[in-house]
Amino acid sequence: MPKFELPPLPYDFAALEPHIDAQTMQIHHDKHHAAYVNNLNTALEKHADLQNKSAEDLLKGLKSLPEDIQMAVRNNGGGHVNHTMFWEIMGPKGGGEPSGALADAIKKAFGDFATFKTQLQDAGMKRFGSGWAWLVKEGSGVKIISTANQDNPLTDGLTPVLGVDVWEHAYYLKYQNRRADYLAAWWNIVNWDEVAKRFGK
Predict the structure, then answer these.
(1) pLDDT digits (tens, 9 = 90+) for 133-146
(2) What are phi and psi of 133, to 5 degrees?
(3) How far is CA 36 from CA 15, 30, 47, 193, in A?
(4) Which domain holds residue 168?
(5) Which CATH number goes with the domain that contains 132?
(6) What's the predicted TM-score (pTM) here?
(7) What is residue 201's predicted lDDT score, i.e. its pLDDT?
(8) 93 located within any domain
């Protein structure tokens, strides 16, 4: 029995239209995310001692894993954790702005919400090739970083509270090479309640 499983999408494939199209969601979830899960399970097949760890713990302790599986866990464990979060921090009733402690932390770090949005989009635009732009928790505050491929901030001791996927497969069917348009539209589907929950943990 494979340990890691593909989590169901928390909403219908078409729920994020018109900002992300149903076909992209279906391929992204059922094909890309499923492949990360399958490849992660395959990587751990010969390592029974690691099969009881969460994917998050594997990423946190990446450098202590056997060398022969480090890259597979980095890529596929990261892909699994990143996408599981991505589906959860989006939703059909998304958009607007955060409130409470998260809003305060964003204001303290960036001055205001508009500046934060601009800087996160900038991080997504400047990520060369494939990767992610993140809002991460550092101490009691927050900062923006970006990572390549499926690298997750947990590996560097940071806690991700929001991440936007800038791999081409996340937007190309609808937006083609217009990554900026995708990033601008993405704010309309952010589920700030879920992001705030992650910040509060």
Answers:
(1) 999 999 889 999 99
(2) -115, 135
(3) 23, 10, 17, 27
(4) 100-200
(5) 3.55.40.20
(6) 0.96
(7) 87
(8) no
Structural domains in the chain (count): 2
Tell me, yes or no, whether 70 and 129 share the same domain. no
Task: Using alpha carbons, list the distances in angstroms from residue 18 to 8, 92, 199.
Answer: 21, 10, 28
CA distance linking residue 70 with residue 62, whole number of Å: 6
108: number of Cβ within 10 Å: 11
The C-alpha atoms of residue 122 and residue 27 are separated, in whole angstroms, by: 26
Residues 48, 136 share a domain: no
> Stretch 120-142: mean pLDDT, rounded?
96
Q: What is the pLDDT of residues 98-118, one digit of tens each?
A: 999 999 999 999 999 999 999
- Do 52 and 144 sit in the same domain of this protein? no
